[in-house]
Amino acid sequence: MAPHSRMVTLDSDIFKCCQKLKTLEWHNDAQAKSLLQRAADQVKPIMARRKWAVPLLNEFYPQMPNLLGLNHNHGQRIDIRLRSPSDPRSFLPYNSILGTLLHELAHIEVGPHNAAFYKLLDGLKRECEQLMDAGNDGRRGASFAGAGQRLGDWSNINVPRHLAREKALLAAEKRYKISSIMSRGGGRLGGSTEVFRVCDPREMALAAAERRRMDDIWCATGRANNPQTGQQQDDSRTDVIVISDDEEHDTTVVDVDSVPDSGSSSTGASPRSTPNVPTRQSPAAMAALRRAGQR
Question: Where does the record locate the signal sequence feature (predicted)?
Fold first, then answer.
């Protein structure tokens, strides 16, 4: 007799990816547990496809207000901020929490904020979009095709009958929802690739540098930081972006780390000096340097 398809839910053994969830047990702990559980359930299929397992998914509330997430030892523990830095009694939007979790999951395979990291992260975001489009919003009870269904092929996900009527509404809301699931700032999930296609090389390099700079502020995993204060312990790394102007044959070297991060004085990190690198002063490069100096 040919094997028949069985229903697999988020509670099935193959989706036990975040093995333990822990909150701070502060005010309104029930909501904190609900948010953390929902985010963990949302990414279960994504993690199961890659055979990722996180022993502890943990709520934290670091002193540094910009710090949103931290990945310890390639996923042995992931810390996520759930509460507003200005008021620990209120919570961040769910989509912000989910975006932070996707970012920290990418650090399981890639530590620094480099091209390989963002390629992986954009792929995770696209998969999350597909899950949302299929009707999985992370709430318990969402079901998936059973035996023989290849993880990651979300087009054939079975949606229970009682959710069928909601699927049309979910599709209508998808564009709004996914536009807010991101690391920081604006843009659609996985949208950086599409944006780069219409940018010239200089804009691409500057955008990539800015993305790394912003992610280094709110995610300490990409650099050697104190988990609680975000204080940088190793100032030896310098990101240098080489920007070429094919028309003028000019080359400009932009030292990204020569500009101190916001709040660096409060953590005791000394400003870095600009290395003595010869540059040719093309208008685009000078404009980029002026913008960096105004931050």
Answer: none
Closest CA to 239 of 220, 224, 225, 259: 259
Which of 147, 179, 211 terminates a domain? The answer is 179
Residue 285 structural domain:
200-293
What was the pLDDT predicted at 214?
72
Residue 192 domain-assigned (yes or no):
no
Instruction: Please answer whether residues 69 and 218 qualify as being in contact, where contact means their C-beta atoms are separated by less than 8 angstroms.
Output: yes
Residue 279 lies in a domain: yes
Strand pairing class (250-255; 240-245)? antiparallel
In a domain, 19, yes or no: yes
Q: What is the pLDDT of residues 39-63, one digit of tens each?
A: 999 999 999 999 999 999 999 999 9
The answer for residues whose C-beta is within 8 angstroms of residue 165's C-beta and 6 or more apart is none
Q: Nearest to residue 180, comparing CAs of 117, 92, 62?
A: 92
Name residue, tokens 């990651």.
Answer: 152
Provide the residue type at 67 as one letter: L
Answer yes or no: is pLDDT of 118 > 70: yes
Burial class (CB in 10 A: 0-12, 13-18, 19+), 223: buried
Contact 272, 234 (CB under 8 A): no
- Residue 177 sits at φ, ψ, to 5 deg, of -65, -50
